[in-house]
Design brief:
The structure is a single chain. This protein has helices at 40-51, 84-91, 93-116, 135-151, 187-200, 249-252, 270-276, 315-329, 375-388, 415-436, and strands at residues 2-8, 30-36, 56-59, 75-76, 128-131, 157-160, 175-179, 183-184, 204-206, 211-217, 220-225, 230-238, 255-265, 282-285, 292-295, 302-306, 338-349, 355-359, 362-366. The chain is globular, with a radius of gyration of 21 Å. It has a nine-stranded mixed beta sheet with strand order 1-17-13-16-15-14-5-7-6, with helices on both faces. Strands 2, 3, 9, 10, 11, 12, 18 and 19 form an eight-stranded mixed beta sheet that branches. Strands 4-8 form a two-stranded antiparallel ribbon. By secondary structure, it is an alpha/beta fold. It has a single domain, classed as FAD/NAD(P)-binding domain (3-Layer(bba) Sandwich), CATH 3.50.50.60. It is 31% helix and 24% strand. The protein binds flavin-adenine dinucleotide (FAD).
């Protein structure tokens, strides 16, 4: 099934973009703001803080960007993952309304950042469609669209089943919602551009520098890395999301790593791509496999992601599972070879919403729950302003619920193995049966 050049575990995106830029190798003695994590959150926070006049240092335990920020699907939009009704129940109507309003602010901020920094990352407003797997799902979508149109300014349209032929060549779905303003990008090129923008501002970005402890000393923080080197920082911002590790237990208990997997096909003919996905949108499904798929930015491949597993498995196993799921939608891809399969950690909060805040003096923004290409740069900027005491840091995302579950002490999310059994053996079967009706 796999071609000889199938590369286990290496993202397709890593074939493009900058070779490793020259980065700092030693930790300076002090900073106004130390940022832990050099993905979208950390770099956007760094740019905002440096532009506000702060001396900023960004450290990453590995190679900057090799967390989720160069592994994701490149689907760009900031609408909340949970319904308005659910959010209102959790945090009250006013805060929920604030979050829905900020979806547009986040989209505008991050797309403007891409433009302002001349980041060439195939950013394109292609729109997104959310495809209904069952007739019940489509009924829910109808209610959702009616409610959102009446109560918010968010752009979305309902697509009846007949209209889907313009979008995708399958009869699997019962209808869809189209989000016309959503966009697509190349995730690594986006990260490369943010890194370049940080380096142009003379921000120190230090790879392979894992911070192990942060201790308050007077009004400052003493931070020590794995090699025992120290930096004194006036403020610290955690931007470690689904890769939070070590002694940051308070954060780990609130944001757990949930892997998501992706495959890329070998290059396909223009005709086949046009036949499969004539709408060229970003595509997601309502079923709980969380499948998301798209055409690659150069128009040559299908990139298909989803829940191959809820815990780490080999790339070969994940590829086999995702290919089966992909071929349920597009049986014509059965004989096509895959070139890549990879995974990354999404940082899930227990309410599926991110939070921006401060704990024991340490600022943070995390918990994007698989939806961070537009939100992480925006909320990184907000967290940086909060750390600097700048009122531009105000955001409704400081009001989301950010609580641990009593049974989870952080580290390895043991409950995902149980959840996986439940999804594989119960939820997926029910959804398949409903879809066949
Ligand atoms: C497979 C996958 C597909 C996705 N698809 C989409 C999508 O299509 N659309 C969308 O909107 N979102 C998507 N997401 C989510 C999105 O990629 C993330 O929300 C976003 O990249 C988070 O950025 P970040 O900077 O907060 O975290 P990351 O990019 O994960 O960076 C965190 C960094 O922190 C570093 N770190 C952790 N602990 C320490 C420490 N103690 N010391 C130093 N460094 C540390 C890590 O090394 C890592 O580099 C996807 C995620 C994954 C994994």
């Amino acid at each position: 099934m796999f071609s000889q050049n199938y590369i286990a575990g290496v993202p397709y995106w890593w074939e493009h973009g900058d070779a490793a830029p020259p980065l700092s190798s030693s930790l300076p003695a002090n900073a106004d703001l130390l940022i832990v994590g050099a993905g979208y959150t950390g770099l956007s926070a760094a740019i905002a803080a440096a532009d506000a006049g702060a001396k900023v240092v960004v450290v990453d335990a590995g190679v900057p960007g090799q967390g989720a920020s160069s592994r994701n699907g490149g689907m760009f939009g900031a609408h909340p993952r949970v319904s308005y009704q659910q959010l209102s129940k959790n945090i009250g109507e006013q805060a929920a309304a604030g979050i829905f309003e900020e979806a547009q602010s986040a989209y505008d901020f991050t797309s403007a950042l891409i433009k302002q920094e001349n980041i060439d990352c195939y950013f394109e407003q292609v729109g997104r469609i959310q495809l209904a797997w069952t007739a019940d799902d489509f009924d829910q979508q109808k209610k959702q669209v009616a409610w959102i149109k009446q109560n918010t300014g968010m752009a979305m349209e309902l697509l009846e089943r007949d209209a889907l032929a313009n979008e995708i060549s399958t009869n699997r779905y019962y209808g869809a919602i189209r989000f016309p303003t959503h966009a697509s990008l190349h995730p690594k090129l986006f990260h490369d551009g943010l890194l370049r923008a940080a380096l142009e501002r003379n921000i120190d970005v230090i790879p392979h520098c894992e911070i192990n402890s942060v201790t308050q000393q007077g009004s400052d923080f003493e931070c020590i890395n794995a090699a025992g080197k120290k930096i004194s920082a006036k403020k610290v911002l955690m931007a470690s999301n689904g890769y939070t590790r070590g002694k940051f237990n308070w954060f780990q208990r609130r944001v757990f790593p949930l892997p998501s997997f992706l495959i890329a096909t070998e290059p396909l003919s223009n005709n086949l791509i046009q036949q499969l996905a004539p709408g060229r949108r970003m595509m997601v499904e309502t079923r709980s496999r969380h499948s998301y798929f798209r055409v690659s930015p150069d128009g040559s491949r299908i990139i298909y992601g989803g829940r191959a597993a809820m815990r780490p498995i080999t790339a070969e196993r994940a590829a086999a599972i995702l290919k089966t799921t992909m071929c349920e939608v597009w049986p014509e891809l059965n004989d096509v070879q895959l070139s890549h399969c990879w995974s990354g950690n999404t940082g899930y909060s227990f309410t599926h919403m991110p939070n921006v805040g401060v704990h024991n003096g340490i600022h943070y923004s995390m918990g994007y729950s698989g939806s961070g290409t537009a939100l992480a740069p925006y909320l990184g900027m907000k967290a940086a302003y909060q750390a600097l005491g700048d009122k531009r840091g105000e955001t409704a995302y400081s009001k989301t619920v950010f609580k641990p579950q009593w049974h989870y002490v952080g580290g390895k999310p043991y409950f995902l193995s149980i959840a996986e059994l439940w999804y594989n053996n119960v939820v997926d079967r029910i959804e398949s049966a409903k879809a066949r009706k």
